[in-house]
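Thread: Newbie trying to understand structure tokens

Hi all, I'm a second-year student working on a class project, and my supervisor (Dr. K.) asked me to get a predicted structure for one chain before our next meeting. I've only ever worked with sequences, so writing a 3D structure as a token string is new to me. If someone could post the tokens and maybe explain what I'm looking at, I'd be very grateful. Here's the chain:
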Amino acid sequence: MAQAEPSQLLPAREQMAFTLGFHIILVPFGVAFTFITMLANYRAIRHGDANARLLAERWSKVAAVLFAVGAVSGTVLSFEMGLLWPGLMSTYGAAYGVPFAVEGIFFFLEAIFVAIYIYGWNRMRPWLHFWCGLPVVLAGVGGTFSVVAANSWMNTPGGITLQDGKVVSVDMWKVFFNQSFWYEALHMLLAAYVVAGFAVAGVYAVGMLRGRRGGYHRLGLLMPLTVGGIASVLQIVMGDFIARYVFDSEPAKFAAIEALPHTQDQAPEVLGGIFVNGDVRFGLPIPSGASLLSGFKPSTTVQGLDAIPASVRPPDHLVAIVHLAFDVMVGTGFALAALALWFAVSWWRTRARRPGRWFLRAVAVSGLVAVVSLEAGWVVTEVGRQPWTVVGLLLTRDAVQRSGNVWPLFAGALAIYVGITVGAVYALRALRRSWARGEAISGPYEPGRAVGGARCTEQT
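---
Reply by user tm_fold:
Sure, no problem. This is what the structure looks like when written as tokens:
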């Protein structure tokens, strides 16, 4: 007889899914948006480009607002780990806490240099100001890698010694750089560049569709779109490597991704469909597709869900979620790569001097598509691990809070996230209104001063 789930498991899962899904959207803007900002800043100094200078200053202020929102949402998540999952923290906190301790260092470095960089506009020499911005990018990458290290450790735990069910020693290097760390870290880093690149480009595509075709909007479209396009193509390649890694090292997750009920060779790749009653319905099977993608030959044996012990086998509805999320992630990923190819061809033929309206419409919605792809990827990672919190060591039902009532805590978290969302929208709209009024810029490379041999004039 299957063990009954604790009463607090559902609200704990719902709250964790909501808060993590909210916070993960902000990560690309702390990691990749700041990098795009620094590219614009470099162009402004190196080439005396007034439009690049204006973009860099405005983007840095948007990044600062989103950083503040991410700080709040991330803090809520850190409290949730102890409140919702005491079984995880009490047993494996000595190991699981290592990456978060490192992340805290990167967070404070990022906060310090964000403040210096924002304050430094018009107060510091151009190149000194530029070099003060680079630590923001590096700290953002380091912080993201740290959080990914914690997540990847739950998928492939290592670096600990257990005695009587307790952690008695921790090798922090093996915890951080666990078996799946580099795969997940690079995958997430590329995803951040994809989301930030297409989302920022989409803003300027909308502006160009409304008739704003000047150099400012053109550069605002081209720079992030180039970054996002390159990252989207690299992500396809990286995803192929990761899929084979999951096949080798996380066969249960791979079985859920493929929604494969039985272990077999010549396993089909099923596109779409709903997994119900132990089988996929309404899907489009590609004969031997899963075997070919996994081992490059039809005879490759792919482990099915029947190879997982019944006591820890994921239920049908979770398999359906993982399978659907993987299809969405791959489908949107290829769509974005196709848009990148369209952009490359357009640039080669016309230097994108007058991008067509259909191209601009595609770019305008690409940011939303990229966010959907990011969320789907995290669903695959998180739900694909179930019913484990730490694979092979700790079941989710044993990690969850068992006393009290989690639903009011969920309501409180929801209220906090609504509040910071409203605050962020208000702050961004206030910035937009001030920019629309054409506020004057002053400082060491303001309009009218020589910058790299050119004179700056604001163009909108």
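A couple of things are worth pointing out once you decode it. The beta strands are 160-163, 166-170, 269-271, 274-276, 279-281, 284-286, 388-390, 394-395, 450-451, 454-455. The first helix runs from residue 9 to 31. Feel free to ask follow-ups in this thread.
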